[in-house]
Design goal:
The protein has one domain: TIM Barrel (Alpha-Beta Barrel), CATH 3.20.20.70. 31% of the residues lie in helices and 20% in strands. The protein contains seven helices and ten strands. The strands form two sheets. The chain has an eight-stranded parallel β-barrel, surrounded by four helices. Strand 4, helix 4 and strand 5 form a beta-alpha-beta unit. It catalyses: N-(5-phospho-beta-D-ribosyl)anthranilate = 1-(2-carboxyphenylamino)-1-deoxy-D-ribulose 5-phosphate.
Length: 210
């Protein structure tokens, strides 16, 4: 199975175009003002316009008011929503868009229960737990905590980079991997060479003999 690739926190149309050309399946736009990767609606429109056909545009939100999300949706052509806060299933579903539900992997998280509670999600996105930070921390979690069988696909995130993503895929066999800080030259600023290196590392793992 081919591992899908999402590059998150993009703010430069050129980086979005590069990611797509190298083989990314999705690019992520962060609509959370507290993030160093936050993007304005106007800039998000420019990035989305640079994304070619058959590559998804994903909007990330953290406990955003409904009105704010609808304002983004009116102007930015998002294919998928990603929720990183304390949103309930109903709050995720009310926009009529497919969505990912992020899970911060703190101690005691029951992924089976999460999967059943958010059964309408397209996937669970698993990220490291850092108190007070909803994501993009650059930390990884213990991949051994992921159950082998879940009734919903998983997107693996948290501390991935070109050096460890191959091991991550071998150990967890996720539907997709998601990277943000692992392809940055400095906090919040993407490095084109690192984007390319990450995508090629995933591609190499996918063709490695079993």
């Amino acid at each position: 199975m081919r591992t899908r690739i999402k590059i998150c926190g993009l703010r430069d149309p050129g980086h979005a175009k590069l990611a797509a050309q190298e083989g990314a399946d999705a690019i992520g736009l962060v609509f959370h003002a507290a993030s160093p990767r936050a993007i304005s609606i106007e800039d998000a429109m420019r990035v989305a316009a640079a994304v070619p056909p058959f590559v998804m545009t994903v909007g990330l939100f953290v406990d955003a008011p409904e009105s704010e999300i609808r304002r983004v949706l009116e102007r930015v052509p998002l294919d998928l929503l990603q929720f990183h806060g304390n949103e309930t299933p109903g709050e995720c579903e009310r926009f009529g868009k497919p969505f990912l539900r992020a899970v911060r992997m703190e101690e005691g998280v029951d992924l089976v229960e999460y999967a059943h509670r958010f059964s309408s999600a397209k996937a669970l996105l698993l990220d490291a737990h850092v108190p007070g930070v909803p994501g993009g921390t650059g930390h990884r979690f213990d991949w051994g905590r992921i159950p082998r069988e879940l009734p919903i696909p998983i997107v693996l995130s948290g501390g991935l980079d070109s050096g460890n993503v191959g091991q991550a895929i071998r150990e967890t066999r996720p539907w997709a991997v998601d990277v943000s800080s692992g392809v940055e030259g400095q906090r919040g600023v993407k490095d084109p060479a690192k984007i390319t290196a990450f995508i090629r590392s995933v591609q190499r793992e996918d063709v490695r003999p079993a």
